[in-house]
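**Protein record**
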Amino acid sequence: MRLKSAVAALLLSTLAAVEPQYDVVISGGRIVDGTGNAWFTGDLAIRAGRIVRIAPGGVLANAESRTRVDAKGLVVAPGFIDIQSHSRPALLDGDGRVISKITQGITTEIMGEGVTNAPANEKTAMLITSDADRQTALRFAGPHGFRRWIGSMRGSVNFGSFAGATTLRMYAKGMSQGAANDAELELMRTAVREAMEDGAFGIASALIYPPGEYASTAELIELAKAMSPYGGVYITHMRSEADRLLEAIDEAIEIGRKGGVAVEIYHLKAAGVRNWPKMRDAIAKINAARAAGLDVSADMYPYEAGGTGLSACLPPWASADGKLFDNLANPEMRSKIRAEVLHQTTDWENLCELSTPQGVLITQIVNDENKQYSGKRLAQIASMQKKEWIDAAMDLILSERRRVESIFFMASDDNLKLQLQQPWIKFGTDAGGIDPERATQLAHPRAYGNFTRILGKYVREEKVLPLEDAIRKMTSAVAARLSIQDRGLLREGMFADITIFDPATATDRATFEQPHQLSTGVRHVFVNGVAVVRDGEATGAMPGRPVYGPGRKSE
């Protein structure tokens, strides 16, 4: 027995001797660790999905590893965290590779603006006409549906989500307008608490779209109070980014103050030429709130155009009770909608008026009879149809029976540069991941180039902000905002989410006219220590894991 034990021990020691010390060694790169500190030349080692060693350049030159990456002349940074993603379909029912995201260096996607797959019930699914699609939408109904939804996703990136405030409202009130009664409000509060315990990062509102637009400030404060004990963040597509931009910031701050939560503003912008001067006032308002001790910050994308549905050009009341298409088909209601768009009497964000019909680009068309309008401006479509632009817009929405994805040109590059320099800014794509080989419709170029555009145009070419600050805003700033403790930095013990890029060539190639073009300069991307991009090509690996908010309770 002693001989057998000795032989077994010898075999184990022999195996251990030939086992590489590390899974991956990245050597000789310019390490930008995500803190904002200056880069330094260093080596980095990965084992079992985590960073286990960071050392001065050359120290790990002879270390044994399964894979070695020569990063000389390249930047080694934490993987980028997209605070505003719409990759829910790709990660839940798609192939999960989100190629347009990983090839710009993204390793974690945070979803939830307005709408989420849970909580779910018949009211959240009321707009779905297909029985099969309705059943799919209801698969996360019942207790802890949010947890089951997050756990059902898979992909090349890590993934997490806020709870959608629109979904929470629909859970109690469907598409109805008006204030929530006590029973409906308590149903929403209960759903908030459960979502927070299931791992939501907080509540995400979208207040220009019905039925999210129907929620009052008081209602949102009550939901914020429900999540406050869990450390949740109130993140918002505000009620206005244009004529009432400053008032909308006041509302967001009020919700944070009275709800006892931190506030994050989605895609900060001043929309419409007449509102461009307001950006300095908006920044001053955020700085004043912070000086007073209120935790308010924002994120952005570096483009002068945003993307949403053409239906955002119609007053929110037109969609009440899910009757938008019925209303557009009814001559009397259509006349009322038309009059409100052309001669606005109520307080809502009229995106077509802000962008002008020439500044509205139609990107996604489904019906064959409308395919000729894809890639054209609304003004062009109106001319082709010999109609006023509002009639062309309403007819297109009714014919497609969907919101009709469009791009709206509204912002100012000077404001973008000013925003980029703010210490509290972060970045989000406001887009889902796309496989360019399967793409059949136009898309906003931010889906492909949001982060690389910052690295190329605003860091390298125009020197609007230093590389180290840009990386901090792409990584640790988001992780800190969301209380993600083990990502966002290059530090021993952290998960090995790592982006390696060439600082001399990293840039975006996607344009509004030709969006399906991958970024250049991103050489390697690791998610949990596994290469999802190698030598600029997606590997197809799917190592992504769920990430959760600070209020999550173990099962």
About this structure: The longest strand covers residues 22-31. Residues 2-18 form the longest helix (17 residues).
